[in-house]
Amino acid sequence: MFANLRTEFYRFQFWDDVSISHFFVTGLFLLAVLVFLIRNHSKERYNPKNLLKIGAILLLIVFLSLTFFISYSFGLNVKLREKFPQKSFNADKTLLNTLNPFLYNYSLYSSEKLFAITNILYPKPYPVIEVTDTTFYDLTNKESYILASHYYSIDTLKMLTSGYENLKTTSNSVFNALGLDNAELQKRIISKKTVKDSTEIVFKGAEVSPRYDPDICMFLRNNTLISPISGISIKKQQRQNAIRRYKLLYKLDKDSLLNSFKKLDTLLKKYGIESKINPMELTRDAFYFRDNNHEQLNDIRNTFDRNALLAEFNMLDSFFYQSNYFDSSIRTIFFSVLFSLWLFGFLIFIIVNFMRKSKHEKADLSI
User: Among 60, 247, 309, 329, which is most buried by a count of CB atoms within 10 Å?
Assistant: First the structure.
């Protein structure tokens, strides 16, 4: 399959058959050009200006001949886009990013970074912010304490700056509606931004308990993307995927998630990824662990070659969005080879031209 191609030709990987053949064909072509130039143009009596013109033309020929890897990579990119249209490629990314929390190795579900409560993005009142308080049992013994985490919704309040300044010193129904008095709001402010005559306040709102929320399971505690879609902000993609994931688990029937896993199975085959995923079994596992939220996900049947999938999409991304036809790592080598070959050929031409010119001058003197 074309997607399994791992070679980046701009890196001069001469062990690749195509690169080797191009290398020798280019060498033979340049040798033929030099022979042609010597046979047909070395009898003329060139002045320095004309020699420079010939040198410039020869340099251009050498340059165009040595840049075969650029044209090959460009053609490879075009072929890739024909086989994997951008719309289809982005649809595959969307499916993978939506289902990503179902696809980890079981040991990773214990990761407090990958599966954290603060990663929950939907529904309201999520996302939340975590506040950790330290409680000391004995003030004389600093080692006797516990850490307690509390979670608050992240809310935003916008108002005129003049109104906000007045509210800081007076009681107001706006704060009462939020369930906060003025002093408490000032303690809960996360950030405050003033733009012209308006002020935007981001603050910790109502306290929530996501660990005991029946509509929040392990699969909603992950917001990472396997492969972000280019041109769309990461935060927007994360939230859109969180909404789709929540609907698949809590709003739509089981067939919707089953169909998503069937599409996943087809996608893995499309990209040549080794997989043992059974959509029916994985759907049963997903709903079982949704309903038994406190169990370890040791038995979820989601085995596939995740590293190969990541490598595949990273490679495709580099062709789609980071096409590098002239990598900085080879520029020194390229220009060294370019000018060495040009100088070698041009000096041979000058020497042969000079020798023939001297030969003709001696023949004219003898006459």
Answer: 309
